[in-house]
Amino acid sequence: MHPPPAPAPTRRAVSPLDHRLQAVTGHDVDTLWAYRDRGILDEQHAHLVDRHRELAKAQTSVTFYLRLLNRLSSGEFDVDSALFTRIDRTVDQLEEATAARDAAARKVLAALEPIEAAAAACAPDARQLSTDDQAALLAIAGGAKLYEHLLTGRMSVTAASGIRIPHAKLQQLEDAGLVVRDTGHPLHAGQPVALTDAGRAALFAARRAPTVQAPKVSARPGASRPTPAQRR
Fold first, then answer.
1. What is the reported pLDDT for 145?
2. Burial letters for 148-167: b for 16+ Cβ neighbours within 10 Å, e otherwise?
3. Where are the domains of the chain?
4. Whole-angstrom Cα distance, residue 137 to residue 152?
5. What region, left, alpha or beta, does residue 33 occupy, with left being phi > 0 and alpha being psi -120 to 50 degrees?
6. Contact (CB, 8 A) for 38 and 200
7. In which element (H, E) is residue 36 found?
8. Treating both helix axes as pointing N-terminal to C-terminal, what angle do 197-206 and 131-141 enclose, rounded to 10 degrees?
9. SS3 of 220, please?
10. How distant, in Å, are the alpha carbons of 28, 124, 212, 218 from that of 128?
11. Quick one: which of 203, 42, 35, 212 has its CA closest to 130?
């Protein structure tokens, strides 16, 4: 007997506000959700992603009842009083789901508009992170500890991903206010290192996708311009 097929993965519902999240952050929605799960986002962006997840869930309900209503009216079922009852009930459920979706969208807008305003007025001297800084902060965001070797006395940061970060780099990030250590733990056991709010904000801003312009293609020397076709 063959095992039952594995259920298909649930796809995230697309909301009408997805493009605005992508425009203001420079990341697609799936990436934003992943950053939220990894604790990379600052408080403001984390709140936005949480509200957007609620919107996506509400949009899923709207889509479900729309499809159900379409199926009920497709001719698949006998036209009788029971069908009319199911259609009426589905219409009521769709109306409730739509109201919940609209309420969730308003919450997303309330969280999104301040970020859009801040992005529009972004100062030109915002913190610039080097590639090494970005890599170190990204590794620390996934969990990291500072250890001191018992024999050599050398210190370094080991991230949960296995990446090692030099102590000098950690000191640089600490001085910049991007990371903080929990000094309540002994070094030989490992002192947890975490991003500060400023560190999360700097990492998030640094990883925004740059605007890429398509290169202009120059005509080859001596190439003639196309002429419109002559009418016969």
1. 93
2. beeeeeebbbbbeeeeebee
3. 18-120, 131-206
4. 26
5. alpha
6. no
7. helix 29-38
8. 120
9. coil
10. 22, 10, 19, 34
11. 203
119 band by pLDDT with thresholds 50, 70 and 90: low
Whole-model pTM over 0.70? no
Q: What is the DSSP string of 67-136?
A: HHHHHHTTT-S--SHHHHHHHHHHHHHHHHHHHHHHHHHHHHHHHHHHHHHHHHT--TT-----HHHHHH
Please determine whether the domains at 18-120 and 131-206 fall in the same fold group of CATH.
no
Query: 195, exposed or middle or buried, with CB in 10 Å at 0-12, 13-18, 19+?
Result: buried
Q: What is the pLDDT of residues 163-182, one digit of tens each?
A: 899 999 999 999 988 999 98
DSSP letter for 208, please. S
Fold that domain 131-206 belongs to in CATH: Arc Repressor Mutant, subunit A (1.10.10)
Q: Break the chain down into helix, strand, coil percent, rounded to 5.
A: 50, 10, 40
Q: Once rounded to an integer, what is the mean pLDDT over residues 55-79?
A: 93
C-beta of residue 206 within 8 angstroms of C-beta of residue 37? no
Residue 61 pLDDT class (50, 70, 90 cuts): very high
Instruction: CATH number for 18-120: choose from 1.10.1760, 1.10.287, 3.30.390, 1.10.3470.
Output: 1.10.287
